[in-house]
Design a protein that fits this description.
Shape: globular
CATH class of the largest domain: Alpha Beta
Strand order of the largest sheet: 10-11-12-9-3-13
CATH superfamily of the largest domain: Probable tRNA modification gtpase trme, domain 1
Order of helices and strands: EEHEEHEEEHEEHEEEHEHHEEEEEE
Radius of gyration: 20 Å
Helix content: 10-25%
Number of strands: 19
Number of domains: 2
Strand content: 25-35%
CATH architecture of the largest domain: 2-Layer Sandwich
Length: 347
């Protein structure tokens, strides 16, 4: 257990590799109740979300989820988040735990359309049930047809005998599955029902460490490592959620449009180690000639590939796929190669 964002969080239960493989091959459950939930309601709630975030909220319909980020007024990122649309007048932002207060203050300060705001982070718990068998497990304890919920969509209904559970076909593992939101008091019963339903697939609780290795194998950004207030979404490869289009007027639109048009000086890349070595956050990245060109932001030994993988920012001229680089590890420069994530693809 470790302290994190005012919670005591489990790093691992039965071992990182064991938990990781369980999620990739079968099913595991994460308690992610530390995540933040902020409601925006009212006649101009949609305009507020549109102004605060880079993606195009006009593409949302009730029951749909959108991955996006909030720019900070200087081209950096306040946070990356999910937006849930319940109606034109009701939206839920799911934000990173360490950023709840920061995000709340930012949203409040930039609430120029007068949306009604509510920080419900203390009242809502969340479980992420992830893995290829997750739908079989969860279907045993709900009458809702989970096959009818498309990827990045959600519904609300009875689950494990509890009412008004948000059932969302989303996740942070690339292994498929659902994220469930519910009242705190319902949590213990829901978790027990999930664990019982998953016994035939040897369902396991999964900690923070495997959550990190799973998302890294997919090349998913982690706030505080790969993105933060000093990185732009364009640099971070999040141009696909930065919609520079007519009518989508958001904070930093002009600055980010300029970056898209003129390019950036550095880019976030994925890389694989060519020798057995583990890259770690903060390690220096060099060109194959030994010139310092960037830094590692995330790294691990991939449990599925049995190979060191990582992400980091490098000067843009070294960001092309298959570019040979070196990673400084314990006074040695270990060869690696730039690759396009995801690192692992399920068969």
């Amino acid at each position: 257990m470790v302290p994190f964002a005012d919670f005591e969080m489990p790093v691992e239960f039965t071992g990182v590799k064991n938990e990781h493989i369980q999620v990739r091959k079968k099913v595991g459950v994460f308690d992610v109740s530390h995540m933040g939930e902020i409601w925006l309601r009212g006649e101009r709630a949609k305009e507020t979300v549109q102004y605060l975030t880079t993606n195009d909220v006009r593409k949302l319909v009730p029951g749909k989820v959108q991955y996006t980020c909030m720019p900070n007024g200087s081209g950096g990122i306040v946070d990356d988040l999910l937006v849930y649309m319940f109606s034109n007048e009701e939206f839920l932002m799911v934000v990173n735990a360490a950023n709840i207060l920061k995000d709340w203050n930012w949203i409040s300060e930039n609430n120029k359309f007068g949306a009604l705001l509510e920080n419900a982070s203390e009242e809502i718990s969340q479980l992420a049930v992830q893995g290829p068998e997750s739908i079989k497990v969860l279907q045993k304890i709900t009458h809702i047809d989970l096959q009818e919920i498309p990827f990045y969509h959600f519904t609300i209904g009875d689950f494990a005998g509890k009412e008004n559970v948000i059932i969302s076909n989303t996740g942070y593992t690339g292994a498929g599955g659902f994220e469930l939101y519910f009242k705190n008091d319902d949590g213990p019963d829901i978790l027990e029902a999930i664990m019982q339903a998953g016994e035939e697939w040897n369902i396991l609780p999964v900690g923070l460490a495997a959550r990190d290795t799973l998302r890294l194998e997919m090349g998913m950004c982690l706030y505080g490592n790969d993105i933060d207030d000093s990185t732009s979404p364009v640099e971070a490869g999040l141009g696909w959620i930065t919609k520079i289009i007519e009518g989508n007027d958001f904070i930093d639109k002009e600055k980010l449009a300029e970056q898209k048009d003129e390019g950036v000086t550095r880019k976030l890349v994925g890389f694989r180690m060519k020798k057995r070595a583990i890259p770690r956050k903060g390690y220096i990245i060099y060109s194959k000639e030994g010139k310092e060109i960037g830094n590692v932001t995330s790294g691990t030994m991939s449990p599925m590939l049995d190979q060191g993988i990582g992400m980091g920012y490098v000067k843009k001229e070294y960001s092309s796929k298959e570019t040979d680089i070196l990673v400084g590890i314990r006074n040695k420069k270990i060869p690696a190669q730039v690759v396009k994530p995801p690192f692992y693809k399920s068969s």
